[in-house]
Structure formats: structure tokens, C-alpha cells
């Protein structure tokens, strides 16, 4: 309201004064005051497919005003309500519920005089109470969001003012698209910004995205090409470019656009140039950029979809039964209407029964029956449990509270416990039939440990490292942290570092203190920090078990023979050097540079200097080494085979293999620029005249003396470097290379610096990075080699992909071609061996390109980079052209060990009747090995493998496997009985052949086609476990969707990475593991745990409890409402179906709303049919939830029949006890109410399996509240409900022995059948749950 008044006063003053608007001021949006529900504060008008961003500066005034109408401001609003719309909007949302609409209809109906049954105010009371409770809950939750929004909107940042010609403090909410923003180290980014300047000498900005996706490892962003070379900050007044980019979207991994200069030259923009709102600037003194998306159009806000809402299976079942209750109500009301019509017809001429209107008109029996139908609807309204939905919400909150406070879910290492992100599907945890699990990071630790490698066809098994891992116990104490590396290791342990802000001495921002947090104070002066300050933080994937690699002695011996003298002493007349040494060099260079690892050292000052690529090496050696590499790259050789068992030193690699994310060219240059740079380069072979390459220099020059690899003067030791990797695979390979003294020293958008053993520092000019993606399944880096000067492509990726991309024929002649074939065969054998040991495999390859080939490719790639539409497809096509004709260097085997407790958990889940599928992108042998290790597959299982290249072959193979299983296992399902079989526990199917199925991604593509789906499901139904390997993220989600929709079963998907998100979202329940790969899976999940072993207790214990509790509570609500309402219905047979109640209306309303509402809620929160220990020891007890035994249609109707019986007893026992007496109507109704209260509460006691003092306290409290209310109401209400009144009735009954006798007899007679049934059930035909009682 205050904002609305400010807006009105502001515009009135400007209208009266007639002063034009200051162009530097922000246009105040009235529409933002009316926004709600977290939507954009102003609906943007369509601007086609693209957005044009114009700087908010004087020269662009007219153009800015033209486009500013499509922008929104940076004010965010996640609240639903305002003070003005809270009541109408909240009521509107609540009346979306059918039950609330039903009771609103009854309230309105009761205001019609002809059908009025109660006092008008009384009918409104239940609805008002329920609506008020939910409104208060919604209001408190929304107010909490409002306070957070206000705090965020009032944070302060530096925005360039075109009026004051300098950066000034402004609140986040006043930032608009086109503004120039300056940010300091540790400051949170207020909007999506294109990076134009960084104080880092290489134009790099480090950001931490934990506020966005939970990942704490640093990521690099880079200045737009053309601006990174500037030594000073960009002057906004001189900025004359405009930006065209894609419209706002929620894809965090994509940004397409271009920056167009005034001369129409375009520069491509990608996600590497975009700083996202919510991220934090780290390790960079200051940055500057222009806002392209603000407020609710930022990618962070577009991904903020709020809490997940799913409707549970039990709730859907309850909604169906509510419809049955409505049908029952209609039947009872029709009976009443028909009875009233017959009654009046019989006594039509007796005025006592048919009183005429004042004008003498008499209502016909037919019309009176019609009116009575609606009166009966009002009278018997309690049959529909209005409090059921509120009670369910309260019970679920209680269940979630106990789940989150279970100490068994606490992970001390990660200091985290379970997160319940979906509040309304806890009971579904007790009904899971199919479980779909990722492998890496879910079943395994996702701690990648380098185990083996194959180079040039020779296998190096790293036995010393294996022995270290077997005896390794990860230390937690300070003593262990301070201990040195294991003996034999060439490197020390990486120590934790603080995200420091490096001091930079050039540029106008260099004088600013790195601790100045401009975004940490709010306009209100609260002083609360919005972002954390520097703190000690362990880098991701840097535990000692991952970083400490013991080199293989054989490979180390060969490595030690690589010296500058070995290479430099050769000339044209001497024989070629050992080519295996060159393979080893290329292999480890590929491991070190083919990644996106960020290198940093704490408090390390940096400065930008001109330095020749290898200025520290002897000039003579440099010349000769260059000449050698050039000779070897163009000369055909006839070297002896490397693949023979004699290990000759020969062979030359032509490409390095590596893997990265999607196509972002770091510092891309146009083809023209590349041509110029090539012509400017000095002739090859001249070390002294080589063009200086800018490189990082840390407090001194580089120098390498002799063959000994020593730390560079002024440079940190390798052990002090910190590697920030985006995936554990990348980190493992970099640490493995470092163990062999091939140390990654630094990385910038233009170069990568290595320390390579005795060769000293090597500076590679980084031309392109082609990142890893799930389509290509590989990554590549394109560099200019510092020794040969040639363009080299290093590629690493899945062996199934890289092997297909190898060159068919080597260019160096038949001998080398034969040699490559043998290397390929040997490497494939090694890969198969790694996979059988359960190792993750990668192939390493390279390709050498001529300048002509590279220029041609670059021209096409540059066009793809600057396009907005279809950019991904064009970049993919460009990458495919580059990544071919590769030369295989070798392969790696990385171990990802099983998490603690995984085999035991999977075994328990199998016994619980849950079918488990493992969906992984790993190769077949690795997946099968892990499946056996985690007991997903047993040694005695018959393993069937579906691996075909065509659809027809897939059909034939599935038929063959299905027939074999059915022959050996008669219990296998026939097609007609497929769905029924899937609802039976596996124990019933396991009398014959135990089968497991392995299917590859290519065959899975065929199996998911509509014509083969049913056959595929029939086959999987016969198998104990299914392993899908080489599966893409899309295939994972399609598999889950297929099983869920076709088999009508409850599914659960669990994963830890971004590739599991689609699978998690499709399943009935999605569970994310907060592990090593960020928080994308957690953010998309319903529940989040830290380890897979926690899943067993979550399902077997809490899932079972939640299902049993809620099922019985819902049934109990139906029971008590039907039992009590029927008392009113039976009474109609004795009052001419007149719609009269034998109970006072207030007692009638409070009976369900107050006196009997708390006990079932307590039951729903605290009931335990079995202890947690018993449920964990006997997983088979979980099957009762899978079969929905606690809440079947049969159970519902038996409960209603029991309610009808109890109501008959409760009515007719007091009726015959007081028959013939002269008691009035309310005196007859009082023992009915009292007996009904005892029956309903003691019924709950019979159904409870464990009674605590809380149960007793609530039940006693309900009884006392009833009697206290009845006594007080009877004492004060003299004329509350004329002509009958409850005055002093309870007081008189309390002194009457007959009253007590009637209540006791009625209660015993009503509950005797249920008590007898429970006793006989426990002794004669106990269920598995009852048989397990002795375990407690």
C-alpha cells in the first residue's frame, strides 16, 4: 500500500510541476505493484525470438526507450499475496478443493428458509475453521518469503550513472537491463551480466555457483573477445556496441547471442561470457559488465519453480472413496426424502403433521419430499469429512519432522541430513515396486582413483598404487591431515585453500580493497552480509585418496629416460629418438590439458609479461627439439611395432585425446585474425625470433637446468597448487599426470602452462575447447604445440566413440599403419580387462592438423559461434568435422569404489520385493562388474545380454531369451498375465531360473519403440534385475516413464548428477544424492540423502510407517464420520423424516471438529506397528505396502459396514433402554453422543499397535473436553435452541446410574465384533506383520 501511495504522489508531483523525467532515473513500474505469485514484475512484450540490449546511456537514449518496454526491472517477488488480495486470492485457491466447494454449497443451502436444518451461523463454523487454519498457514509462509524478498531487493551494488558519470550505489531492485555493473571480490551478482572487463590479466573471472546449483568448486568465465586485451577498464561512455541474444529462458548451460560493434562487426557470445544472478565473484579483484536479463527474467529466477507438488497414490484412493461417500449421502438423503413424502401422504389430512402456510396453502408431499432432500443434505453433511484434508496435511508435516530428525540419516563427513522437499508424498515411500538407480556417485562414491593406464599398447597396472588403496584409511583427524603423502608418491597432499582475492597492480580497480563487499549491506542499514567472506574451503574431488597417486615403476623408468639431452643431441643424420617416449609425452600432456580444471595457488600475485614459450630452456635445445618434432610430424617412418611383447621404444602419436563440455571457444579469433597471426609468426626453427607469447610469470623467470625438474623460482610447489575440477574424472587424470611430474601449472583463455618433468615449462596456445556432451560423449582441446608449432587436437572420451573416430590408414606408410592397428588391438584388450575389473575407461587420442585444414575448419566454426538459431546443431556438426582421423595414444582405467553399505541395502531392497534397475552411461563390462559387486546380480543368476545392431535382431533375441526363461521357469509371466505378475512379490517368481538382463544403449533405443515395448516389459518382468548400460539421460527418463505408465506401478528414481534430473522428475518419487557432482539432482528431487545406504531405512522403516499410519487414519476418519452421521439417519425413522436432530447443533458440530479430531492425528504421526529394528531385519514386511494391504477397496467397505453396525448398536441400545419413558429429545440424544464418543475413541485404541503416554493423554483430554463442554453448555444454555434446550441435561445424567449402564453396554456391544476379529486374526490367521511381533 505504501508503494502505491508513493507511486501516486510521485507522478502527481511530476504532472503538476510539468518537469520532464530525468533520463538517469528508473521508470517506476506500477504493474510491479500488482504482480503476485512470483511472476515477472512486468509482463514483457514479445520481441520476436531474440532480445536486443541497448546500453542505458545518453547516445542510445532514443533506441533504449524503444526497447525498454520489453525489459523488466530487477525487483523480485516470490510471494503470492499482497495485503489487498490476500483474502480473495487465498479463498479462490482454497475453493479449488472440491471438499471446500461442497461445504460452501451447504452453507449457502442452509440460508434457504425452506430447507434450513441448522442455525445459519452453526453451518458456517466448520468451513470457517478449516479455511482460517489454512489461511493462517499460507499467510505466515508468504510473509516469510516477503521478508526475504525485501532483504534481497535492498542489497546494494555499483551501477554506472550517466548523470554523475561514475559508479554509484544502487539497490538491486533499481537495476535495469542495459545498466553497467561493477562487482568486487566475494560480491553476489545481482542480475545476468555479460562480462566486459576483469582485473585478471587474462580476462578471467572465477565464480562460485553454490547459490545457484550447490556446487562449491570454482568455475571460470571470460571477458568477451576483443575486450580481454584491454589493460584498463571499459569506459561506459565510450561503449558503442549493442547486444542481441536469445529471449529469457531457464537453461543454465546455454547462452546464445552476439555483440555488434558500431562498424557492424559481430562477436559471438556464449555461456562462458555470462555471469548469472546468485553466483559469487571469487579470486578476482573486480569485474564489470552489462545487464542482459534482470529480475524474474534471470536464469536463476526462471529456474525457481517453488516447492514440488505431487499427489500421492493414497490421496488419489481417498478422493475416490470420498466420491463413494457422496453417493452414500445421496442415497441416504433420497431415503429421507422418500420417507418424508410417504409420511406426509399417510397423514395428509391431519393438520398436526402437515401444517399449512399462513395463506392456507398446503405443500404437497412430493414437493415437501424434494425440500426434505436438501434439508437432509445439510443434516448429514458430516458424512463427508471436511477435517480429513487438514488432518492429512498436519500428519504429513509430523511425519516429515520425524524423518528429518532421524539421526541415522546424518552424514558427519558432509554435515548433512535428509531433506524432504516434497511435503505430500511421504506415504508413497512405503509402496515402491520399481527402483531405478544411477551408478556413478549413487552406488559408488564418485571418488575417482587412478588405477591403470595403457600407453602405446603397453599396460601399466600400478600395483604399488593398488596396494596403497587397499590399506588406505582416509584420515579425519588433524594429525592425518598434516601427514605427508604415502611413500613412493612424487607429490604431496593438496591442502585446503581460502578463496583469496589476488592483488592486481594495473587498471583503475587495482586500488580497491578485495574485502570491500559492496553487495553485503542493505539500504536499510541492517548490516547483514549477503555473501560470505573468505573462508577456508576444501576443493572438490581433492581428498587424499584421490590426489595421492603412486607411479608405476615400469612407466616411471621409461619416464626418467626422457631428457632434453636425449632429444637435443640428435640431428638429421642420427636415428630417430625412441618413439614410445613421444607416445608417453603426448599421453600425459593430454591427461594434463584436456580438461577444464581451474588452477589456483593461495595468495599468489600475478602479472602479465611477454615471454617466449620456452625462454628458460637452452636455445640450442629448443631449436633442435623443434626441428625434431617437425621432422617426426611430416616424415614417413618405418618403425618396428610397438604392440609386440618386447616393448621397443618406437612410434609417434598424432593427437591427444580429452573430453570437455559444450562448444565454447576460449578466446576465439576470426579467420582473418588467425591468418594474420600466422603470417606475423617468425619462421619455424628460430628460437630467438619466435613470436613472444604472453604467459603467466610469478615473481621470477623460468629456468630449467639440465634434466632435473625443479620448481620454478618464485612459483609454488606442485603440492600447493589447487585444482578446481567440474567432474572427478578430470581431477583424477590431472592428479595422475602430476604424479609423473607432468604438472598443470596454470590455465587461461589463451594458454595452458605445464611443467613436464625434465623438459621444463611448456606453454600451449589454447585455440579452442570443445566441451563434453552426452551426444558426442567426448571432449577435445585444440592447441598450438610449443615444440612443433603445429595445431594439435587432443581428445578423450568413451572408448565406444573414440575407437570409431580413429584414422583408417596412417599417413606415414604401411609399417606405421600396421603398428597403429596392433596398438588399437592391444589397447582394446586392456580396456576390456579394465571394464571387467569395474574400472571406468577413457580413450586418449590426438590429431595433427595442417594450417590450411585448421583455417578452413575455423571459418565454419566461427560462423556457427556467432549464430543464435540452431547454434547447438551447427557447433555439433563443426565438432564432428574436427574430431576424426584420430591417432590412438592410450587409455585410462579409473576406479570408482562402491559406497559403504550399498550391497547390504540392495540385498534388503530385493528381499522387500522391489525390482531394481541400474541405468548408467558406462560401458557394459564396467556396469556388470559393479552390478555383481553391489549384489544387484548374484553369482548364480543366469545373465542375458541384449546387444544388437538392428531392430529385427533385437526382436529375435528377446523372443529367444523369453522362451528360454519360460522353459526353465514355469512361473514366468505369460503376456496376458503380465500386469498381475508385476504386482506379485519376486519370491513367488523365483522358484525357477534366477535371471538378470543387461541391455546396451543402442538396443535400448529399439526396445523403447512402441512396437517392442510390451515384449521388452514382458522380458524384464521375468528378470530379478536389469542393467541398462551406455544409456543417455533421455533414455533413462523414457525407461522410467515406460514402466510407470504401462505397468501402473510405483516407481522411484535415484541419482546424483545433472544427467539424472529427467529420470528423477519422471518417477513417482525422485531422490537426489548430495554427492560430488553438485546439487542439480537434489534440486529436482522430492527427497535428498547423502548416501545410498540411507535409502533402505527411508523406504523399509519410514516409508512403511508413513503408509500404515496414513492409511489407517484415513479409514478411521471415514469410519467415525459414517458411524456418527448414521445416528442422525436412524433417528429420522422415528421423527417422520423431518430432518430433526436429537442432538444440539453445537454438540453436533464440535463432535467431529473438536472432540474426536486430535486422537487420529496423533495416531497418524506416532503409530508404529513394528519397531525400526524389526522392519530392517525383516525387509519382507515391506511387501504389505506394495500390495496396498492396509487400504484396499475391500478394506474401505468393511470399515463402512462396521461403522453401520456400530451406529445401529449405539442408537438402538439407548432407544430400547429409554423406551416408554418420558425423557425429552435432547435427554435421549445425550447418551447417544456419550456412547458414540467412547466407541469411536476405543475403536482407535483397538487399532493402535503401540500406545504411548501421548496417546493416552490425548484420548483422556478428548473425553474430558467433551464432558466439560456438555456440563458448561448445559448450565449456561437456557434458551439456545428453542423449543428444546440442553439445559442441565448432562448434570442430571451424571447422577443417573442408568446413563452409565447404557454407555457401558452400548460401547461393549458395538466394539465386541472388531475386538473378537483382531484377537482371532492374531492367533489363527496372523499376517506377516503380526507374526513378526515376537521380534519386538
Q: Would you write up a description of this structure?
A:
- The protein has 1336 residues and is of the alpha+beta class.
- It is 42% helix and 15% strand.
- It contains 45 helices and 35 strands.
- It has a 9-stranded mixed β-sheet, sandwiched between helices. The protein has a 9-stranded antiparallel β-sheet with strand order 17-16-28-27-26-25-24-23-22, with helices on both faces.
- Strand 22 (742-747) and strand 23 form a beta hairpin.
- This is Phospholipid-transporting ATPase.
List keywords for this structure.
1336 residues; 9-stranded antiparallel β-sheet; magnesium; alpha+beta; 9-stranded mixed β-sheet; elongated
Overall shape = elongated
Q: What is the spatial order of strands in the main beta sheet?
A: 14-35-34-33-15-29-32-31-30
Helix content: 40-55%
Instruction: Give Rg in angstroms.
Output: 38 Å
Strand residues, percent:
5-15%
What is the CA–CA distance across the termini?
A: 61 Å
**Total number of beta strands:** 35
The description of the largest β-sheet is: 9 strands, mixed
In terms of topology, how is this protein built?
Elements (H helix, E strand, L loop, with lengths): L1 H16 L13 H4 L15 E4 L7 H7 L18 H9 L3 H13 L9 H34 L2 E6 L4 E6 L8 E5 L7 E7 L5 E5 L1 H4 L4 E5 L19 E5 L10 E4 L5 E4 L4 E2 L4 E3 L3 E8 L5 H4 L10 H34 L18 H15 L7 H18 L14 E2 L13 E4 L6 E12 L2 E3 L2 H8 L7 H5 L61 H4 L5 H8 L3 H5 L10 H15 L4 E3 L6 E5 L7 H16 L36 H10 L12 E5 L24 E3 L3 H12 L2 E6 L3 E6 L3 E11 L7 E7 L6 E7 L1 H4 L11 H23 L2 E11 L1 H15 L5 H12 L4 E12 L3 H10 L3 E5 L4 H10 L8 E5 L4 H18 L9 H5 L3 H4 L5 E6 H7 L5 H9 L3 E5 L3 H15 L3 E5 L5 H6 L2 E5 L6 H5 L2 E3 L4 H39 L12 H11 L2 H9 L5 H6 L5 H4 L6 H25 L7 H23 L5 H24 L12 H6 L2 H27 L4 H4 L5
Parallel strand pairs: 15-29, 15-33, 29-32, 30-31, 31-32, 33-34, 34-35
Antiparallel strand pairs: 1-8, 2-3, 2-4, 4-13, 5-11, 5-13, 6-7, 6-12, 8-9, 9-10, 14-35, 16-17, 16-28, 18-21, 19-20, 22-23, 23-24, 24-25, 25-26, 26-27, 27-28
Helix pairs in contact: 4-6, 5-6, 5-10, 6-36, 9-10, 9-35, 11-35, 11-37, 17-20, 22-26, 23-24, 25-35, 27-31, 35-37, 35-40, 35-41, 36-42, 37-42, 40-41, 40-44, 41-44
Amino acid at each position: 500500500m505504501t508503494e502505491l501511495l508513493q507511486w501516486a504522489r510521485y507522478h502527481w508531483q511530476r504532472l503538476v510541476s510539468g518537469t520532464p523525467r530525468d533520463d538517469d532515473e528508473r521508470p517506476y513500474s506500477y504493474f510491479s505493484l500488482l504482480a503476485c505469485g512470483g511472476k515477472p514484475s512486468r509482463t514483457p512484450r514479445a520481441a520476436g525470438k531474440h532480445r536486443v540490449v541497448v546500453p542505458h546511456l545518453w547516445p542510445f537514449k532514443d533506441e533504449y526507450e524503444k526497447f525498454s518496454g520489453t525489459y523488466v526491472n530487477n525487483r523480485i517477488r516470490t510471494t503470492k499475496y499482497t495485503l489487498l488480495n490476500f483474502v480473495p486470492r487465498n479463498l479462490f485457491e482454497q475453493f479449488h478443493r472440491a471438499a471446500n466447494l461442497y461445504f460452501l454449497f451447504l452453507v449457502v443451502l442452509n440460508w434457504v428458509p425452506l430447507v434450513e436444518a441448522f442455525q445459519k451461523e452453526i453451518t458456517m463454523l466448520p468451513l470457517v475453521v478449516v479455511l482460517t487454519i489454512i489461511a493462517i498457514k499460507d499467510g505466515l509462509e508468504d510473509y516469510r518469503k516477503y521478508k526475504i524478498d525485501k532483504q534481497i531487493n535492498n542489497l546494494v551494488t555499483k551501477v554506472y550513472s550517466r548523470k554523475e558519470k561514475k559508479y554509484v550505489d544502487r539497490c538491486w531492485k533499481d537495476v535495469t537491463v542495459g545498466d553497467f555493473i561493477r562487482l568486487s571480490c566475494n560480491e553476489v551478482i545481482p542480475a545476468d551480466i555479460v562480462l566486459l572487463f576483469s582485473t585478471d590479466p587474462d580476462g578471467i573471472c572465477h565464480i562460485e555457483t553454490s547459490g545457484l546449483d550447490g556446487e562449491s568448486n570454482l568455475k571460470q568465465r571470460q571477458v568477451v573477445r576483443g575486450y580481454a586485451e584491454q589493460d584498463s577498464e571499459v569506459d561506459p561512455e565510450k561503449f558503442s556496441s549493442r547486444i542481441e541474444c536469445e529471449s529469457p529462458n531457464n537453461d543454465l548451460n546455454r547462452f546464445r547471442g552476439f555483440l555488434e560493434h558500431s562498424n557492424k562487426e559481430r562477436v559471438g557470445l556464449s555461456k562462458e561470457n555470462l555471469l548469472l544472478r546468485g553466483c559469487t565473484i571469487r579470486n578476482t579483484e573486480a569485474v564489470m559488465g552489462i545487464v542482459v536479463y534482470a529480475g524474474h527474467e534471470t536464469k536463476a529466477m526462471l529456474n525457481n519453480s517453488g516447492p514440488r507438488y505431487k499427489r500421492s497414490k493414497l490421496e488419489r484412493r481417498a478422493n475416490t472413496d470420498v466420491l463413494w461417500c457422496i453417493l452414500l449421502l445421496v442415497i441416504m438423503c433420497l431415503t429421507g426424502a422418500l420417507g418424508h413424502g410417504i409420511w406426509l401422504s399417510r397423514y395428509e389430512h391431519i393438520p398436526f403433521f402437515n401444517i399449512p402456510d399462513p395463506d392456507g396453502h398446503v405443500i404437497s408431499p412430493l414437493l415437501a419430499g424434494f425440500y426434505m432432500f436438501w434439508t437432509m443434505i445439510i443434516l448429514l453433511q458430516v458424512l463427508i469429512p471436511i477435517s480429513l484434508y487438514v488432518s492429512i496435511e498436519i500428519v504429513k508435516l509430523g511425519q516429515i519432522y520425524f524423518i528429518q530428525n532421524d539421526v541415522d540419516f546424518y552424514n558427519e563427513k558432509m554435515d548433512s541430513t535428509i531433506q524432504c522437499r516434497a511435503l505430500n508424498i511421504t506415504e508413497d515411500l512405503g509402496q515402491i515396486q520399481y527402483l531405478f538407480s544411477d551408478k556413478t556417485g549413487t552406488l559408488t562414491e564418485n571418488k575417482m582413483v587412478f588405477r591403470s593406464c595403457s600407453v602405446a599398447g603397453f599396460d601399466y597396472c600400478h600395483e604399488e598404487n593398488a596396494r596403497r588403496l587397499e590399506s588406505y584409511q582416509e584420515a579425519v583427524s588433524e594429525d592425518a591431515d598434516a601427514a605427508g603423502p604415502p611413500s613412493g608418491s612424487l607429490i604431496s597432499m593438496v591442502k585446503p585453500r581460502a578463496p583469496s582475492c589476488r592483488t592486481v597492480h594495473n587498471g583503475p580497480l587495482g586500488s580497491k580493497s578485495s574485502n570491500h563487499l559492496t553487495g553485503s549491506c542493505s539500504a536499510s542499514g541492517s548490516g547483514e552480509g549477503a555473501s560470505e567472506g573468505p573462508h577456508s574451503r576444501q576443493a572438490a574431488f581433492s581428498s587424499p585418496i584421490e590426489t595421492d597417486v603412486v607411479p608405476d615403476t615400469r612407466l616411471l623408468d621409461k619416464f626418467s629416460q626422457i631428457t632434453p639431452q636425449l632429444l637435443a643431441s640428435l640431428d638429421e643424420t642420427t636415428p630417430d629418438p625412441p618413439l614410445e617416449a613421444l607416445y608417453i609425452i603426448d599421453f600425459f600432456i593430454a591427461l594434463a590439458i584436456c580438461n577444464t580444471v581451474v588452477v589456483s595457488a593461495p595468495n599468489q600475485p600475478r602479472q602479465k609479461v611477454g615471454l617466449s614459450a620456452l625462454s628458460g630452456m637452452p636455445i640450442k635445445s629448443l631449436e633442435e627439439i623443434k626441428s625434431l618434432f617437425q621432422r617426426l610430424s611430416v616424415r614417413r617412418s618405418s618403425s618396428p611395432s610397438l604392440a609386440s611383447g618386447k616393448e621397443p621404444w618406437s612410434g609417434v602419436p598424432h593427437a591427444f585425446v580429452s573430453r570437455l563440455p559444450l562448444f565454447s571457444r576460449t578466446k576465439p579469433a576470426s579467420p582473418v585474425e588467425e591468418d594474420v597471426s600466422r603470417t606475423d609468426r617468425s619462421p619455424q626453427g628460430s628460437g630467438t625470433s619466435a613470436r613472444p607469447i604472453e604467459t603467466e610469470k610469478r615473481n621470477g623467470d623460468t629456468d630449467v637446468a639440465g634434466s632435473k625438474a625443479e620448481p620454478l623460482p618464485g612459483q609454488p610447489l606442485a603440492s600447493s597448487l589447487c585444482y578446481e575440477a567440474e567432474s572427478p574424472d578430470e581431477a583424477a587424470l590431472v592428479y595422475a599426470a602430476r604424479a609423473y611430474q607432468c604438472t598443470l601449472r596454470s590455465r587461461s583463455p589463451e594458454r595452458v602452462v605445464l611443467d613436464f618433468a625434465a623438459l621444463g615449462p611448456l606453454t600451449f596456445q589454447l585455440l579452442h575447447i570443445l566441451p563434453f556432451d552426452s551426444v558426442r560423449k567426448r571432449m577435445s582441446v585444440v592447441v598450438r604445440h610449443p615444440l612443433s608449432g603445429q595445431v594439435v587436437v587432443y581428445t578423450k572420451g568413451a572408448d565406444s566413440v573414440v575407437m570409431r573416430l580413429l584414422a583408417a590408414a596412417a599417413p606415414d606408410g604401411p609399417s606405421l599403419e600396421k603398428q597403429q592397428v596392433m596398438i588399437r588391438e592391444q589397447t582394446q584388450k586392456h580396456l576390456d580387462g579394465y571394464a571387467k575389473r569395474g574400472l571406468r575407461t577413457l580413450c586418449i587420442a590426438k590429431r595433427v592438423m595442417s594450417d590450411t585444414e585448421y583455417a578452413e575448419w575455423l571459418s565454419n566454426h566461427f560462423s556457427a559461434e556467432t549464430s543464435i538459431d540452431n547454434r547447438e546443431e551447427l557447433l555439433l556438426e563443426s565438432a564432428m568435422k574436427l574430431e576424426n582421423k584420430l591417432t590412438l595414444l592410450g587409455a585410462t582405467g579409473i576406479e570408482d569404489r562402491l559406497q559403504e553399505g550399498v550391497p547390504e541395502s540392495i540385498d534388503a531392497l530385493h528381499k522387500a520385493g522391489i525390482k531394481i534397475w541400474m541405468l548408467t552411461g558406462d560401458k557394459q563390462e564396467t556396469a556388470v562388474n559393479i552390478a555383481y559387486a553391489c549384489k544387484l546380480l548374484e553369482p548364480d543368476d543366469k545373465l542375458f545380454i541384449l546387444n544388437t545392431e538392428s531392430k529385427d535382431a533385437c526382436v529375435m533375441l528377446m523372443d529367444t531369451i523369453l522362451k528360454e526363461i519360460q522353459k526353465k521357469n514355469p512361473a514366468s509371466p505369460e503376456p496376458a498375465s503380465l500386469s498381475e505378475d508385476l504386482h506379485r512379490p519376486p519370491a513367488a517368481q523365483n522358484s525357477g531360473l534366477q535371471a538378470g538382463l543387461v541391455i546396451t544403449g543402442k538396443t535400448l533405443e529399439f526396445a523403447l519403440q512402441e512396437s517392442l515395448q510390451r515384449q521388452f516389459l514382458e522380458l524384464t518382468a521375468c528378470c530379478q534385475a536389469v542393467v541398462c548400460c551406455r544409456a543417455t539421460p533421455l533414455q533413462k527418463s523414457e525407461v522410467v516413464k515406460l514402466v510407470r505408465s504401462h505397468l501402473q506401478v510405483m516407481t522411484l528414481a535415484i541419482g546424483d548428477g545433472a544427467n539424472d534430473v529427467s529420470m528423477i522428475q519422471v518417477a513417482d518419487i525422485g531422490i537426489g544424492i548430495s554427492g560430488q557432482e553438485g546439487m542439480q539432482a537434489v534440486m529436482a528431487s522430492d527427497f535428498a540423502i547423502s548416501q545410498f545406504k540411507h535409502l533402505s531405512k527411508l523406504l523399509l522403516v519410514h516409508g512403511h510407517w508413513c503408509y500404515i499410519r496414513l492409511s489407517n487414519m484415513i479409514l478411521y476418519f471415514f469410519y467415525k464420520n459414517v458411524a456418527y452421521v448414521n445416528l442422525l439417519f436412524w433417528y429420522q425413522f422415528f421423527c417422520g423424516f423431518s430432518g430433526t436432530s436429537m442432538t444440539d447443533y453445537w454438540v453436533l458440530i464440535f463432535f467431529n471438529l473438536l472432540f474426536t479430531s486430535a486422537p487420529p492425528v496423533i495416531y497418524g504421526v506416532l503409530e508404529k506397528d513394528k519397531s525400526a529394528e524389526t522392519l530392517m531385519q525383516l525387509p519382507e514386511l515391506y511387501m504389505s505396502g506394495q500390495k496396498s494391504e492396509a487400504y484396499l477397496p475391500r478394506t474401505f467397505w468393511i470399515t463402512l459396514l462396521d461403522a453401520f453396525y456400530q451406529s445401529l448398536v449405539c442408537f438402538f441400545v439407548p432407544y430400547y433402554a429409554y423406551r416408554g419413558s418420558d425423557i425429552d429429545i435432547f435427554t435421549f440424544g445425550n447418551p447417544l453422543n456419550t456412547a458414540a464418543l467412547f466407541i469411536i475413541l476405543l475403536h482407535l485404541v483397538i487399532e493402535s499397535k503401540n500406545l504411548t503416554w501421548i496417546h493416552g493423554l490425548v484420548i483422556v483430554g478428548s473425553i474430558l473436553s467433551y464432558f466439560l463442554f456438555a456440563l458448561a453448555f448445559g448450565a449456561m444454555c437456557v434458551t439456545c435452541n428453542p423449543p428444546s434446550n440442553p439445559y442441565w441435561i448432562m448434570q442430571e445424567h451424571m447422577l443417573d446410574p442408568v446413563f452409565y449402564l447404557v454407555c457401558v453396554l452400548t460401547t461393549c456391544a458395538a466394539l465386541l465384533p472388531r475386538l473378537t476379529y483382531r484377537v482371532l486374526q492374531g492367533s489363527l490367521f496372523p499376517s506377516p506383520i503380526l507374526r513378526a511381533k515376537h521380534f519386538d
